[in-house]
Amino acid sequence: MTAEAVKNRNQTVDSTLPGNAEYDIIIIGAGPGGYVMAERAGHLGKKVLLIEKEYLGGVCLNWGCIPTKTLLNSAKHYVHAKEAPNFGVTTGDVQFDLTKAMAWKTEVIETLRGGIAFTMKKNKVTVINGTAKFLGPRKVQVGDKVYEGENVVIATGSSPFIPPIPGTEQLHVMTSTDILSIDKMPETLAVIGGGVIGIEFASFFSSLGVKVDVIEMLDEIIPFMDRGQAKEFRRALKGKVTFNLGCRVTAIDDHTVKYTTAKGEDKAIDADIVLMSVGRSPNLKDMGFEEAGLDFDRRGIKVDEQLRTNLPNVYAIGDVTGLSQLAHSASRMGEVALNTICGKRDRFRMNAIPWAVYSMPEVAGCGLTENQAKDAGHNVETASLPMTMSGRFLAENGKRGPGSVKVVKDADTDVLLGVHMVGAGCSEMIYGAAVMIEAELRVKDVQEIVFPHPTVGEVLRDVMFAL
Amino acid sequence: MTAEAVKNRNQTVDSTLPGNAEYDIIIIGAGPGGYVMAERAGHLGKKVLLIEKEYLGGVCLNWGCIPTKTLLNSAKHYVHAKEAPNFGVTTGDVQFDLTKAMAWKTEVIETLRGGIAFTMKKNKVTVINGTAKFLGPRKVQVGDKVYEGENVVIATGSSPFIPPIPGTEQLHVMTSTDILSIDKMPETLAVIGGGVIGIEFASFFSSLGVKVDVIEMLDEIIPFMDRGQAKEFRRALKGKVTFNLGCRVTAIDDHTVKYTTAKGEDKAIDADIVLMSVGRSPNLKDMGFEEAGLDFDRRGIKVDEQLRTNLPNVYAIGDVTGLSQLAHSASRMGEVALNTICGKRDRFRMNAIPWAVYSMPEVAGCGLTENQAKDAGHNVETASLPMTMSGRFLAENGKRGPGSVKVVKDADTDVLLGVHMVGAGCSEMIYGAAVMIEAELRVKDVQEIVFPHPTVGEVLRDVMFAL
C-alpha cells in the first residue's frame, strides 16, 4: 500500500466534486472483476455504467479460464474413454476431434457471454462497447463522449507478457490466446514457462498424444506450490511431458527453440508450435492513467485493502492491481470496492484465496505453504497423506492414481494455515479449505466436522488426525 | 436419550469394577464405526480388541458404500463414453462388461480391506475373527473365550429389512447384498423402496440400459431431501427410470410384483430381478444384549450424546444406535466415544452431518431442509440457483445438465442452516457446507469467502447473494 493510499483510506466521497453525476459507478472492463461488481452494484440499486472494449467476460471467459477448462474437459473425456476398460467399459477406437471440441468451447463461451448480458440487463447495468480513456476522478471518455460517475473502477485486466527473445514475432509462436484458435493439432509443442497456463496447455496437448516439452527458467514448475507436491505433480505429468528445468530460452529460430541449461550448455528443441506462457502484465498503457496522476508502476495500480487508489473515489480491481492474477480474486476485489463505496466495512484478504490448476491430475491449494508459514515466523507442523487413502479415489483412479493432501498448521495455536492438494477432482474440493482458513478453525475443530463417506474429500479430514 | 442414559451422562469409569482388564477397549464390529475407533484408540496408545464376525470394513466396505460407488463409477464411465461425442471425442461401440466391472469392484474391496488390516497392525489393534456375545460391562465372549476390557463398544451395524410380503424368499428377490454378486445383467429390474440404496441401484442399472421400475410407498423418493429438489432429482432420473409413487407392494408372485396404487388400483410389473430396499434394521439379536440388561428397542440401542448406553462403560456406535445410518456418522460416533473414554469433552451433533447419493446426477445435503427449519421454529429464508450458473458445470454437463443448489438460512440471525445440492460432483462439494454449518457461519461470512473460478462450487457462493 502506498502512503497516498493509506492517507486516502478513511476518506469518504470527495465533497469538493460536484454531485449528481449521471452514474453512481463507472467500471472500465467487463472481466470477472468488472462484471461481478456491476451485477452486485446493480442488484443494490446503484446506477452502473460498464465499459468493455471487446467481449463481456473479459480474458477469463473469452480467452482464459473458460475455454481452457472446456478443452481440458474434452481431453478428460478422451483420457477417460481410453482408461474405461480398466473399469469394465469397452469403447473401440477413441479419437479426439479438435474441430468439434473447439465448436463446443465456442458454444460454451457464447452461452456464458449471453448469460452475463442477461444479468447486466436484469440488474439495470448500462453496458457500452468501446475503448475507455480515464480522465481522472468521475470522468471517463469513450469515443467523443465523456461519462460522469461518482466512483470510477478500473478493471482493465492484463495481457500475455512477451519476453524480448528473438523470433517471438513468428506466427507459430503463440500466446495462450492464439493457441485457443488453432484448427489443427500440432505433433510437437514447446511450452515456454512452467506456470499455471503453461502446465494446463502441456497437460491438454500431451494427454492427446502431442509430444510436449516444457522449458522453465526456475528449478521447479508452478512456483507458488508446495515444493514437495510440485515435484509429485511434475512426476505425474512426466512420461507424457518432458520438463527442461533451470533453462533459459535464448532464441526461436523458425521451429527451433534454442535454450541454455542450468549448467550453461546450449541446447535446442524443434516444435510445430511454441507457446509463450511466461506471465501476464497489467494493462496500463494508453488509458490516460499517467496524465490523470494515478499512482502505478509496471507491476500494477497501487491500492489499499479497500481497493482505493491514490485518487479520490477511484478504485482498481483485478489483474491490473498486480495483487493477484486470479478471476475469483478480481470478483472479490469488486465486491470489496462496492462494499467500500456503500460504506460497509470490508477488506480484501489474501490469506485464504484458493487456486487450482485444471490439469490431469489437478492441483489446488489455499493458504500458506510450509515454507511460507516458516518464513512468516510460525512454529510449523505439517502432515501429508496419499489420495489413495480414500476408497472412492482408489475406485475411480486406480491403485496408482497420483495425488496427496498436505496440511500446514501453527503448532502453538493449532490453527490451520494451509491446505494443498494434488489429484483428480481437487479443484472442486479446495473451497472447503478456504472456508476453514477464513473461519480460522483449529485442527481440533476440523477433526469434529463430519465429512461424507465415501468421498475423496475424506483424506482432508484424515490428514488432520496425522498432525 | 433415555432417562437412564441421562443419569449416566456424567458418570466416569465405574470404580466398583475390578481394574487391570486385559484391554482398554473391546469393540464388537469392524465397520466404519468400529475400525475407525480402533485405529484412533490404538494411535493414542490404548490397548484395543476388535472383534469381527465377517470381514474388516463391515457392510460399508464389503456390501455397501464401496462396492456400489465402484460400480457406479464404472456406469459413469459407460455414460461418459456414450456422451463423449458432445465434447469432441469419438468412440467405437461402447459396451458394459459386468464381469470386468465386478472384478474391479472385488479388487477395490480387497485392497481397502488389506489397508484396514495394515492400519490395525500399525496401531497395535488386536483383531479377532468370530461372533461376539456381550456378557455385560467389561466382558465379551468369542467362542469359548471371555475377553475383558475396561470399556466395551457395540458397533454391530444393521441388516437389510425384509418386509412381510409373500414371495420375498425367492432367489431373484434380492437385497442390496445379493445384487452385488449377480453375474448377468437383468433386462428388467423392480426396485422396492425409493430411498438412497434403491435409487443408487436404479441409477446404476437404468444407465446401463436396464428397464427399471421403482415402487415407493411414499409420494416422493429420498424422504429426507428438500421436497423441491427431490422432485427435480426424480425428473432427472425419469425417462430412464419409471417411478410408481404412493404404491404398496402386496406380493411377489414368481417374477410378477403386485402392488396397489394410491388410488387403490391393483397393478403388476414383471421383473427379472426384484431389489428389496425398504430399509435396514439394527443388528440386536442373539448377542446377549437383553440378558445383559442393555436398554434398546427395535429402533436401536439407546445412547446419550457421548454414545454411552445405560450400562457403565458400555458404548454403542453406528447403525445399531438407530441415530443415523451413515458410515461417516458411525466413524464420528466412534471418535466421540473414544474422546469420552479419554476424558475429553465431545458430543455427537446431528445438525451438520452431510449425506450424498452417488447416482447420475448426484444429490447431497447438509443441515436443515426448508421444512425442517420451519418446523424447528426458524424464521426461514431460502434461495436456489441452477448448477448451469457455473461456467464449468455448463462446459462439463451441457446446457441442460440437471442440478441446483438451495440454501436455507435463519432470517433473524443470518445463520446458515442448510445446503442442498443436485448435480454431477456434488458429493465432493457438500463437505464444505458441513464446515460452514459446524462453524455457525452467517451468510454474510460466506459471502466474504473466496471460491475458486471456474468451479461448480461457485454456485454455492452465488446463491448466498440471492438470499
What is the topological layout?
The structure is a homodimer of 467-residue chains.
Chain A: H1 3-8, E1 23-28, H2 34-43, E2 48-52, H3 58-63, H4 65-83, E3 89-90, E4 95-96, H5 98-122, E5 125-129, E6 132-136, E7 139-142, E8 145-154, E9 158-160, E10 173-174, H6 176-179, E11 188-192, H7 196-207, E12 211-216, H8 227-237, E13 241-245, E14 248-253, E15 256-260, E16 266-270, E17 273-276, E18 280-282, E19 296-297, E20 300-301, E21 314-316, H9 327-341, E22 355-357, E23 363-367, H10 370-375, E24 380-386, H11 391-397, E25 404-410, E26 416-422, H12 430-438, H13 443-447, H14 458-465
Parallel strand pairs in A: 1-2, 1-8, 2-5, 8-21, 10-17, 11-12, 11-17, 12-13
Antiparallel strand pairs in A: 6-7, 7-8, 9-18, 14-15, 15-16, 19-20, 22-23, 23-26, 24-25, 25-26
Helix pairs in contact in A: 2-9, 4-5, 4-7
Summarize the structure in words:
Two copies of one chain form a homodimer. Chain A has 467 residues and is of the alpha/beta class. Chain A folds into three domains: 3-61 and 102-160 and 281-341, 3-Layer(bba) Sandwich (FAD/NAD(P)-binding domain), CATH 3.50.50; 173-278, FAD/NAD(P)-binding domain (3-Layer(bba) Sandwich); 355-465, Enolase-like, domain 1 (2-Layer Sandwich). In chain A, 31% of the residues lie in helices and 25% in strands. Chain A has helices at 3-8, 34-43, 58-63, 65-83, 98-122, 176-179, 196-207, 227-237, 327-341, 370-375, 391-397, 430-438, 443-447, 458-465, and strands at residues 23-28, 48-52, 89-90, 95-96, 125-129, 132-136, 139-142, 145-154, 158-160, 173-174, 188-192, 211-216, 241-245, 248-253, 256-260, 266-270, 273-276, 280-282, 296-297, 300-301, 314-316, 355-357, 363-367, 380-386, 404-410, 416-422. In chain A, the strands form six sheets. In chain A, strands 1, 2, 5, 6, 7, 8 and 21 form a seven-stranded mixed sheet that branches. Chain A is globular and about 65 Å long. The interface between A and B is large, with 93 and 93 residues. Strand 3 of chain A pairs antiparallel with strand 4 of chain B.
